[in-house]
Write a structure and sequence with these properties.
Elements lengths: L7 E3 L5 E3 L8 E6 L8 H12 L5 E6 L11 H12 L18 H9 L14 E4 L5 E5 L9 H11 L5
Parallel strand pairs: 3-4
Antiparallel strand pairs: 1-2, 3-5, 5-6
Length: 166
């Protein structure tokens, strides 16, 4: 695989969704959890979505319960929690594994394209991957990196897209 657009994921209803539907758009892919110290990052993720969605940015949230089981068992509870507490309107998907023997192929690709600090494994919730409009992974951000600290890198993708030298 050479692009994130080649992967298929499950939506919150369990239906297959080809990431090809986002082709040509920059993406911010995040493994999320509803009961984590980093959960308030949903507020900044939503703010970025509102700021850049009209320009083409898509934020894709992937709930994961692999880190101290900090995610609801059922996706309906996850969705309700995210919408009521953080006003999340960006696409969320079915709960998945982002590490280990059952790692989803998308996250296997992401972590092989952008290594972490000491290894390629995801170590905690809210690890974030920035993808350009070609489907190339251009950045990986630690859970502690708040979404608004990534805004300059997101803007660089749009500046490059319209021909502004960065």
């Amino acid at each position: 695989m050479t692009s994130v657009y080649e992967f298929t994921v499950k939506n919150t209803k369990g239906e297959d969704v080809s990431l090809d539907k986002f082709k040509g758009k920059p993406l911010l892919i995040v493994n999320t959890a509803s009961h984590c110290g980093f959960t308030p990052q949903f507020t900044e993720l939503q703010k970025l979505y509102e700021e850049y969605h009209d320009k083409g940015l898509e934020i894709l949230g992937f709930p994961c319960g692999q880190f101290n089981n900090q995610e609801f068992e059922d996706i309906d509870s996850t969705m309700e929690y995210c919408q009521l507490n953080y006003g999340v309107t960006f696409p969320m998907f079915a709960k998945i594994d982002v590490k280990g023997k059952d790692i989803h192929p998308l996250f296997q690709f992401l972590t092989s394209e952008q290594k972490g600090f000491l290894s390629n494994h995801i170590k905690w919730n809210f690890t974030k991957f920035l993808i350009d409009e070609e489907g190339t992974v251009v950045g990986r951000y630690a859970p502690q990196t708040t979404p608004l600290k990534m805004e300059q890198d997101i803007q660089k993708i749009f500046d490059r897209k319209i021909g502004i030298n960065v």
